[in-house]
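Two quick folds needed for the group meeting slides. Do the first one here.
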Amino acid sequence: MDDDLTRREGEEEGGPRRPDPEELDPRKVILRPLSEDHVGDLRWIHERPEIIRWWDEPEEDFPWDEPESTRLTILVDGQVGGMIQYWEEDEPKYRHAGLDLFIDPALHDKGIGTRAVREVARYLFEARGHHRIEIDPAADNAAAIRVYEKVGFKPVGLTRRSERDPDGKGWHDALLMDMLSTELTSGDEG
């Protein structure tokens, strides 16, 4: 962590030091493979109530708990700002990819998620040869849906009561969304 970054009012002791959201440049978003250096900050971000609402409590071995997914740290101005992951269906008849992410709540509404999703989608289309990517946010996660639509994802339909609520007492709907390689937006629109 950079010594010149200081905790801002409201930041918890033990949490990551973050760049000032008012001075963020979303062009300075870099995706890196997970490293042990990122684990503490990613766990701290994942444990925020705003993240747990959609991702549940982190597993004991997070972020190494899903070997079938490729996980990348989202660095913002050199600091850990979140995580994005993707998985691939390699069965030739059904070949496609999926992705998911979380961003430090202090960095929401800064274009970081949009940029990260766009970059991973571009990689999956251009380097990995996928023609289609899907994602299934909770149907009431309006912020995530907005990000995905900006990148080019389109709603396909609801999957009713398809995911357990974080408290384990109920179920909620998810919105299945997908994007074809021809639908990826350029990024000029924000």
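Then this one, please, same format:
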Amino acid sequence: MLFIPSTTTSVSSLVAGDVHVANASGGGVASAVVAGADLVIAGCYLNSLPYELIVHETIKSAEDLKGKTIGISRIGSASDVAARALIRGLGLEPEGQVLIMQVGGPAERAAAFRTGRIAGFPSPPGIIHITKGMPFRVLISTADFPKKFDFPFICATTTRSYLARQRETVKKVLMAHIEATHFFKSRKEESKRIIAKYSRITNEAYLEAAYAANAKLYDQVPLVTRPGVEVQIKTALARKPGAQLRFEDMVDESIVRELDKSGFIDKVYKSS
């Protein structure tokens, strides 16, 4: 197993054939498929985007944020989608009224924030605990939105050609992911240790906040949020005029539905 910290890197690794199955967000997959990539989402374990917009404590309103720079990992990543949604949630226009800069993963964003290179950054709950005392405030959160922010956040992704050739292998990966989701939701301390190992972040406050925010959001049956995907398709098509993309072009839930119908998922969750 290889830890890949961003969707854009996962997508490029899949396209290059360096990996056969990887977790990626729907936004990154939609952009890649519109550009001609042979990618397909086989299932999504997290269909929401639990993000906060962390800003310096001197920024107290949307007006204060105008002209400032927000740091993300990469264009097209989940942090990019989150940043744009959070900025729009404040009634502002991303890139027009608030600048967006590619900085890197959560730890790199926190470091850039601490040094003043950026005025804020979108963050999964808990990351702010590694900024080592930098004065901050949460300006807005996706939890503040009037309705749930549907977003295909953590999705098992492969290529259509690999799915056709190695369907049983992809099925085994999905089965392992379903078992891992159950493990994550039911075995807190072990899960926190695994997060620390692969993220290389050992701050206890971060680990606790990250676990608390995410454990309740992981889906037992990893079907894909259609409304969330449709939004990402619309965004991807806006960047490539003339292109066409449908939900069915980038999602194949047949294995998940097969596993659900067979009773496998119920058996996993009844085992505890």
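Slide caption for protein two: Residues 167-186 form the longest helix (20 residues).
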